[in-house]
Backbone:
């Protein structure tokens, strides 16, 4: 692909030209090399296509705003290659892309594997705060914390070269694309739609994964009609790297036995010859796999009106889940109508208007709250401003400007509040 092409993804192909196509999707912060140890075996059976996320591994830095957009770019890539139907395995955000494909384009996906995946990744707040940290401090603190999130302590201690590889892989990612991917994961939630995934699905979870714990995998298995769970001992989030033999065996067995291709044109043999074989990263052998299933109830659906639904969505995106949950938990018969009022009109009617963007609305809001001395609301709107893309430097300029037109005492109080919030929100993870 060219640097100017914003509609497709950078890809690498291995395996026989006449074989069915199997697509492998990477984790956030990782490149297609996370699948290196799976390629020798998988490419005996399939034409394996790996892709990089925007801004990862030297791919053109054209941020994607949502998981749906990433799925659309992948389909455009496959369309250019003449691939109609394919198998798909994805890790973490790569798994989210797989779920999106199975939900929105079921005729394209023959079989599905979701590795270290979830129908909703953690909390929206955590991913938006990670974006704030990257915007303020760059990717270095995220890169240094990656081994702790990705690997078990024993593996990290035994494999320092892989730890260094992981840190460098994250550190060289484009920050803007990383932030966009965080925003995409913050907005991703398919819990209520899992029953519409109709292809055979393997869900693989690392037993020690703290990012997408086994409980998340069980929700996937409970919601998808034709799904089974494989729990991999001795693995954390980057399961294909930490336990490559176990994951490879699971994928071979799943895609060999569950590919839905009857009565469908495969269109899977049109990919050109592969580039030179990549260098394989050294990884220790895998462990025994224990498989089981567990059922959990489906989530409740919010049945309120569209105006309220849109308002609560925007309110959560701007202020964060923790703040909105706290406000709702404190509401009672006396204040419930007021909570409904501000959600419906402030957030559902005003904050959703297209005339100005959210960054500009944050500038206006900070100025108004500082001018009127509403310091409690200034605190949580400072957090909101950071999530909406303002940097600490830009917030400082807003408050300096406010001091000129609204008075030094006003700005003095506002600076104290904003300083505290900025320190809390921009402290690197870990």
Residues:
């Amino acid at each position: 692909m060219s640097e100017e092409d914003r509609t497709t993804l950078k890809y690498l192909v291995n395996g026989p030209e006449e074989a069915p196509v199997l697509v492998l999707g990477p984790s956030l912060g990782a490149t297609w090399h996370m699948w290196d140890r799976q390629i020798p075996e998988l490419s005996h059976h399939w034409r394996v296509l790996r892709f990089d996320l925007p801004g990862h591994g030297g791919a053109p830095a054209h941020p994607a705003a949502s998981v749906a957009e990433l799925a659309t770019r992948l389909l455009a890539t496959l369309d250019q290659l003449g691939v109609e139907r394919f198998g798909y395995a994805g890790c973490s955000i790569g798994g989210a892309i797989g779920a999106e494909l199975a939900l929105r384009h079921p005729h394209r996906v023959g079989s599905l594997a979701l590795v270290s995946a979830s129908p909703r990744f953690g909390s929206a707040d955590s991913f938006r705060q990670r974006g704030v940290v990257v915007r303020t401090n760059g990717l270095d603190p995220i890169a240094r914390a990656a081994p702790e999130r990705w690997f078990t302590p024993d593996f990290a201690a035994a494999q320092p070269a892989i730890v260094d590889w992981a840190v460098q892989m994250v550190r060289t990612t484009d920050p803007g694309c990383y932030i966009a991917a965080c925003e995409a994961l913050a907005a991703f939630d398919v819990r209520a739609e899992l029953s519409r995934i109709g292809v055979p699905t393997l869900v693989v979870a690392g037993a020690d994964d703290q990012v997408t714990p086994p409980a998340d995998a069980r929700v996937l298995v409970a919601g998808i009609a034709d799904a089974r769970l494989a729990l991999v001992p001795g693995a954390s989030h980057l399961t294909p790297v930490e336990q490559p033999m176990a994951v490879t065996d699971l994928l071979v067995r799943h895609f060999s036995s569950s590919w839905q291709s009857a009565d469908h044109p495969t269109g899977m043999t049109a990919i050109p010859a592969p580039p030179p074989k990549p260098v394989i990263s050294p990884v220790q052998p895998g462990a025994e796999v224990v498989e089981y299933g567990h059922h959990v109830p489906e989530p409740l659906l919010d049945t309120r009106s569209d105006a309220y639904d849109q308002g609560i969505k925007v309110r959560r995106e701007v202020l964060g889940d923790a703040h909105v949950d706290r406000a709702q938990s404190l509401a009672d018969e006396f204040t419930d109508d007021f909570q409904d009022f501000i959600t419906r009109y402030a957030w559902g009617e005003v904050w959703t208007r297209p005339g100005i963007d959210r960054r500009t609305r944050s500038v206006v809001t900070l100025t108004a709250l500082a001018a009127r001395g509403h310091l409690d609301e200034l605190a949580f709107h400072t957090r909101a401003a950071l999530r909406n893309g303002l940097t600490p430097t830009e917030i400082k300029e807003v408050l300096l400007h406010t001091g000129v037109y609204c008075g030094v005492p006003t700005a003095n109080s506002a600076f104290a509040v904003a300083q505290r919030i900025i320190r809390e929100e921009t402290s690197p993870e870990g």
